[in-house]
Amino acid sequence: MKKKLIPITANNVKLLGRTHVINDTLWCAFSGTGIEFQYTGTHLTVTLIADNAFCDVDNQARIAIYVNNNRIIDQMLTSSSQTLSVYEGEAKTITVKIIKLSESAMSIIGIKPIEIADTETLIPTAPQKHKVEFIGDSITCGYGVDDEDENHPFHTSTEDVTKAYAYKTATALDADYSMVSLSGYGIISGYTDNPDLKCENQLLPTYYNKLGFSINKFEDSIAPQNLEWDFSVFEPEAVVINLGTNDESYCNTAKKFDEFAAAYIDFLKQVREKNPLAHIFCAYGVMNVAMMPSIKTAIDNYSKTCNDYKISLIELPTQDGSLGYAASWHPTEATHKITSETATKKIKEIMHW
After folding, report:
1. What pTM value is reported for the model?
2. Strand pairing report for 34-50 and 14-16
3. SS3 readout for 183-199
4. Which residues pair with 167 in a beta bridge?
């Protein structure tokens, strides 16, 4: 039987999130990136390329593969190249989705062209009704959501973006999504154990215009943070920013809160420049609330100075332990569900969806 190779491009699959083709491989960095397509045939395999950033099974790339919305594969990519069996049986049409569950700083993956029989087909799935971009930190990434012990540390093996509020919100909104999220990152400071020491190398705005950030490189040669993102590829109707949680660890004086508010305004301008038509939602409150007054001040001052009122606040419910805690005191999936319900309700109300 004759075979053909199907390139992983927008002509053949739906691209999920920010992706980039180098030679014949589609590379994925940020959480939630991947592909979705309809396949008609009898035998389907996919080959994935993985990094070995941390060189142990608990801290490599974690991926999921779905067939007709059922997760059939959930595993860590522990070797540089793995071919996985997705379907074998009688000829029929199935919907296949490959999602990178872990975040970009610690893991990147590549998807090779898919070989199918000459008589078989592979086409993109239809677009959803809406498009939403989510910008955030570990909460958006789904940090530790599969490890409900607050005393346990970070592992990519317990990170699952599909169980986090952003992915759940996109699903509830019938929206295609793009996510820009990095654990520990903030607006003026990443997470710090010492408020006298600003963590300036973990600022999300630095990488907003990029394909991602990782300690590894695509094909061992190109870092995702060195690739500019083409914002015309995905033009969201709504952008959700959920940042400030990590800045709280640094902001312990009025001067620092003012610095945060000013930097938040600058980031709003950056997001608006790249998304001129989108409604911007500023969400916050899941793990702490100290930055809320500064965020409210930033929204108010930005709207007045820029005459831009397509911006709304989403006050997210703060976890209180009644639904448990995940690793490093992060939200459980049950908490993410409530968070998603709050975000979904507000977005629907403002967008009239």
Report:
1. 0.97
2. antiparallel
3. CCCECCCECCCCCCCCE
4. none
Report the 10 Å Cβ neighbour count for 19.
Answer: 25
Q: Helices 165-172 and 333-351 meet at what angle, rounded to 10?
A: 40
Domains and CATH numbers, the chain: 3-124 (2.60.120.260), 130-351 (3.40.50.1110)
Structure tokens at 91: 């000829």
User: Which burial class, exposed, middle or buried, applies to 253 when counting CB atoms under 10 A from its CB (0-12, 13-18, 19+)?
Assistant: exposed
Per-residue confidence (pLDDT) for residue 261, from 0 to 100: 98
Determine contact, residues 122/116, Cβ cutoff 8 Å. yes
Strands (E), 156-295: 175-181, 238-242, 279-284
Residue 262 burial (10 A CB sphere; 0-12, 13-18, 19+): middle
Which of the residues in the chain have pLDDT under 70? 52-57
Q: Is 324 exposed, middle or buried (0-12, 13-18, 19+ CB in 10 A)?
A: middle
SS3 of 349, please? helix
Q: Which residue is it, tokens 């100075």? A: 305
Q: What are phi and psi of 18, to 5 degrees?
A: -85, 115
Confidence (pLDDT) at 1:
75
Q: Would you state the pLDDT for residue 106?
A: 81
Q: What are the pLDDT digits (tens) for 262-292?
A: 999 999 999 999 999 999 999 999 999 999 9
Structure tokens at 229: 């993102």
Q: 169-183 as b/e, with b when 16 or more CB fall inside 10 Å?
A: bbeebebbbbbbbbb
